[in-house]
Amino acid sequence: MLFFLYQLNQQLQILVKEVILLYLYLVLLHFLFQILLLQEKAYSFALEVTTSGDYAITWPTSIKWEGGSAPDNTASGETDLYTFITVDGGTTYFGKKALTGVS
Q1: Is 53 exposed, middle or buried (0-12, 13-18, 19+ CB in 10 A)?
Q2: Is a pLDDT exceeding 90 seen at residue 83?
Q3: Which of 6, 40, 41, 78 is the most buried (most CB within 10 A)?
């Protein structure tokens, strides 16, 4: 029983760390988009996302995606690369999933 509780505790610690990292990624992404909103120039950047679970990314509504809607995430442990460009200082972004499932 003690071993089971130890394993459960270890798994919960890993889960908490993953949730915290996901939250930090989302906060940093939010601030990146907000900082670019303050500019009146064209900018582009790439964002590398490696998933560690079945999480969905909620993207800002200011992104206009290739194909009309945000792409799906790949499987856990895979890496996706997204590219973004704005030509109006961040009011609108054009987004594209440049690489899918890179491991």
Answers
A1: exposed
A2: yes
A3: 78
Q: Report DSSP letters for 14-59, one per residue.
A: HHHHHHHHHHHHHHHHHHHHHHHHT--S-EEEEEEEE-SSS-----
- Long-range contact set of residues 55-61: C-beta below 8 Å, sequence gap at least 24: 55/22, 57/26, 58/26, 59/95, 60/30, 60/33, 60/93
Distance from C-alpha of 30 to C-alpha of 90, rounded to nearest angstrom:
12
pTM assigned to the model: 0.61
Determine phi and psi for 88, rounding to 5 degrees. Answer: -125, 30
pLDDT tens column, 53-64: 777 788 889 999
Domain locations in the chain as residue ranges: 2-102
C-beta neighbour count of 82 within 10 angstroms? 22
Judged by DSSP in three states, 7 sits in: helix
